[in-house]
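re the bet — no i am not wrong, look at it urself. input seq straight from the record:
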Amino acid sequence: MNITIAIDSLKGSLSSLEAGHAIEEGIRRVYKDAAVNVRPLADGGEGTVEALACGMGGTLETVTVTGPMGRPVDCQYGILPESGTAIIEMSGAAGITLVPDAEKDPMKTTTFGVGEVIRAAIQKDCRRFIVGIGGSATNDGGAGMLQALGYGILDRDGNQIPPGAQGLAQIASISSEHVLPELSECTFRIACDVNNPLCGPKGASAVYGPQKGADEAMVQVMDRGLAHFAEIAGKWNPKADPEFPGTGAAGGLGFAFLTFTSAVLESGIQIVLEETKLREYVKDADLVITGEGRLDGQTVMGKAPVGVARIAKEFHKPVLAFSGSVTREAAACNDAGIDAFFPILRSVVTLEEAMDPENARKNMADTAEQVLRLIQAVQPMQAL
């Protein structure tokens, strides 16, 4: 039997690869000689660095950078040496979880640290980048990142504007005189699963500003600041397009990547599925197994397990899914290519007990074992 496993992380419990290997353990209790391929899976958000770096023979690096509030933070990123690819989650350098609730203020939070991570990766000979931009604490249009890469985002006196959205209204000119020379050799695949424009009622400030600490008055100031930034950027690069879907992602970071680097915005799960070459493993599989921490009605809205299922159905492969919990709305997964799904909880326990990594690993392995025993009972292995 040939089985391909690609399961997303169970956040706070098991990484993608840990969950996959737990399923493999359960499979081998039933089919000792099965060919089992455990592939990393993520959707471009949290866990992408670990999944891709560890699952594709890469390394994990840690660099100290400027955090969103200006204080140093340690940011982990991945490197795939063979292709010179760096895998970065912007939230590791400028994420909302790095800002205490009492300090949330998108007028001050900066993406400078994101640029510092890119610089560090360039210094390690990376020229190809996969960047997840979810979970940001910022609304600076990516100005901080650009400054860290050597761009001059300058006021009328020729000085760099201050960090955060507060500085955007002061922009008078943009200079590339001191940009890191290697940046022109770099390409960026940006994992972006929102289609917000930069400005306006559906823009970065209006839609995401409040969750970052902005009140209504602040939203208006930030929106005008981003519009001003876009106007000046348009003079520097006539192709700048603040209406392009996704430019409003991560407080305008999508706009900065598109306007100032060689970048494309893409679905996070599609990037991961292509980079991991999952199709090559699925096409020869007898069975495909996927899953995530919680299967619900949102799973079918472009999340990782359904991405796996769609590939499997291209090759007419059966698909099973395991998850920490399921809701009634998860039934929609059956219409999206997941033939059957199974929660792994085996008794009534507290949330803390359910999420304990060792408990989760055992539950995953035990559930996989019983499901494979069912397959063995109703369909002899030689028929698969």
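see?? Residues 137 and 212 are 6 Å apart (CA to CA). told u. also The chain is about 35% helix and 20% strand. so pay up
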